[in-house]
Amino acid sequence: MFARLPGLDGVLVCRHHGHAVYGLDEHMKRHHNMPAAERRAQLALYKDAALLPPAEVPLPEPYGRPIDELGPAQDGFAVKLSRWPSASTVSHQDHAAQLWKPVKVQTFFRERRHVRYFIVRELEEGQGRETEQGPEKEQEREDGGPPPPQEQQEQQEQQEQQEQQEQQEQEKQKDGYWQRLSRLSYGWEDLKREDGEAVERMAEEALAKDRTGWFKRTRWVEHLQAYLDWKLLSYAVRPPSNDEPELKQVALVAEELVEQAVRGLSTLSMETLHWLRSAQVTEPNARPLGRMQNRGSQQRAARLWARLLCYCLRLVAAEEEEEGGEEGQRGGRKTTSLRSIARLFPWHGRQKLAATRLWKLASRAHGGGSSDDAISDLRKYVLRLSETLICQEVYHQPFQSGLVHFLAALGINPDTLRLRTAPQFSSLLGSLVYCVRVLAAEAFLPSRQRGEQGAAETRALLQKRSRYLVNGSHSPMSVMLSLLSYAKFISLRTPGSVAGSMWWSTNQQTFFIKGRPVELERFRTMAQGVVAEAERVLWEQLLWGGKGERGDSRLSVKLVGIEDDVTIVRRGVSFLSPARLRTGERWTLERLASVPAPVREARRRRRRGATGRR
């Protein structure tokens, strides 16, 4: 089955597969399906063979005799160094085709990471047999004496003719290889260009053929066609970096404003909170709007809204630099390139005015220090810019809203430059919807003026809610609610997503948890098995009952005798009557007294030993 190679210690070749092995037992187990007994027998035969790692196996000298155990040699090419100068393109192409030499190669290992080719000479048909017969003929000549001179001359002429024929055949073969290489090199660039175009077409078709209808619903592909550089657009909506102190200050104020708005929810009436959480015009939600259960999720939502404000301020700064004829000191070429994105941003109403005023306040606060008045002004214009972005009517042109445009820019994955799918985007969208609701409540009913607000202010809040915060209101919030509902619908039916990690089979008989099936029959018997195991532990280990003890000898309570009162919340109250409890206590004491002391002590020691091992 395995062969040793002469002159190469530490190399063992599998005759069946035609390559060397470096893990003998693993090779026989995986590739030969050999039982353990046969593997042990083979390992005993080759126990003295210390196999070398693939990287340490020495390669034979070039142009040596092929190794028959490795199978037939493969065709390969050897590079020839060249320093031939030429100014002619045609002559250089003709010379480039001669930089490769056809050779025959072999390798000890077939795995890609361990392949190391070495050159062997190409044998003619029958050459191996002649080589094998050569020592016998030489032995015969030694026994019979040297051949006569005439025979030596004939043999020499035949050998010269054979060498000439071999040389001519090799030259013809080389000419054929050079011609084929020349044709391949000429057409290589054309094939490479055609292949690249085909890959781009396949990517566009794969993007257009979305099976869930998510990209068709969002219409991001159509909107983002005006933006040639998606990488630059995703760079524009990034969180503020350390070299943007003005934006970091604005982001901090925005996060504090969201926290202030969330704290202000506790001072609103419960009915108002039910209305604020509802996405319907005429029906309040069953749950009130409040603080997120996970504090980290709420902080991420606030940072996401801060990214929207920083995106607006970056575009305002880029336009101001363009009007002033200045080049951005921070960001260099990217700051200058943001001007093309700034020209396409859909400003509406007083949005640009609020963003410009906020940018000037942020620049002034950074240059002159952060006083209380400066922070108060920043908070005022952060809320004003947020309100102008929320309170807008878009009707049949949703991307005329800066908030909806920000959703499309946020949908670009900055690492892959591909659009996010519904399961990937639903969490971001839900965070933005939450921020819109709490900031709208703060803008319509400021928490600092809660004591002065009455019925008129509450009615005004509900009217603005019906106009800007509900589904079907032709507002940016209406677009976001529609996309969020559709994204949740897709996520719950996508097994690979977090929301779709649990689902039922088509016949409702199997429940899947992250791809692992749980049969309904086993699920039904799970509670019964837990009860049976608890009963076994109670009788056999706590009450020292025998394994073969009959069930009728055990104390049991009928369900009719249980008095269950859900209004009783005190500790120490039993479901059994006092008389029944006294009967059970007397039975337990008699049971314990009937067990011999040596049996109790032995089982107690055994139980302690099991507890110690655990």
Automatic annotation (TrEMBL):
Biased composition (Low complexity): 151-167
Sequence ranges of Basic and acidic residues compositional bias: 126-144
Disordered: annotated span: 126-175
Highest taxon above the source species: Eukaryota
Protein name: Uncharacterized protein
